[in-house]
Amino acid sequence: MGTRLTDPYSSELKPFTACDPGWPPLMRVSPMLGWSYHHVWEFLRELNVPYCSLYDEGYTSLGSVNNTQRNPALLSADGVYQQLLTGRCYLGEGRTDLK
Questions:
Q1: Within the chain, where are the H helices?
Q2: Residue 28 in contact with residue 17, Cβ under 8 Å?
Q3: C-alpha angle with apex 4: 61 to 88, nearest 5 degrees?
Q4: What is the pLDDT, as a whole number, of residue 47?
Q5: Other CB atoms within 10 Å distance of the CB of residue 60
Q6: pLDDT tens digits along 3-34
Q7: What does the pLDDT read at residue 26?
Q8: Is 55 helix (H, G, I), strand (E, B) or coil?
Q9: DSSP of 52-77, one letter per residue?
Q10: What whole-number distance in Å separates Cα of residue 15 and Cα of residue 28?
């Protein structure tokens, strides 16, 4: 799974966890659990992995149509959302994670 410790409701997850009761008896594996936002985008950039274009429009987390919003941390003083993958702004100039 692509879940990280900084994701909502994920702070108590472990790299290997049995699925919740009511689900098939499978092992949930979370190899990216300890990755920072920087690690994820570095991986995507280095390997040219395709991703949803909404990330280039100021979104840093995608949920449903009803709860997905642009990240205010990427809003510049002139009211324009910075693109995540432009130069260093995808890290917020030295920040290790954007929430």
A1: 37-46
A2: yes
A3: 60
A4: 93
A5: 19
A6: 888 777 888 889 998 988 999 999 989 999 98
A7: 92
A8: helix
A9: -GGGGGT-S----TTT----GGGB-T
A10: 8
* Two structure tokens written together for 22: 């009511």
Q: Which pLDDT does position 96 carry in this prediction?
A: 45
Residue type at 23? W
Amino acid at 5: L
Q: Are 7 and 33 in contact (CB under 8 A)?
A: no
Which residue, among 66, 62, 86, 67, has the nearest Cα to 76 in the 3D structure?
86
Q: Can you tell me the distance from the alpha carbon of 27 to that of 15, in angstroms, rounded to the nearest whole number?
A: 10
3-state secondary structure (DSSP) of residue 42: helix
How many CB atoms lie under 10 A from the CB of residue 9? 7
Say how many CA atoms lie within 13 Å of 23 toward its Cβ.
9
Q: Report the chain's C-alpha Rg in angstroms.
A: 15
Determine the residue type at 1: M
Cβ neighbours around 90 below 10 Å, total: 24
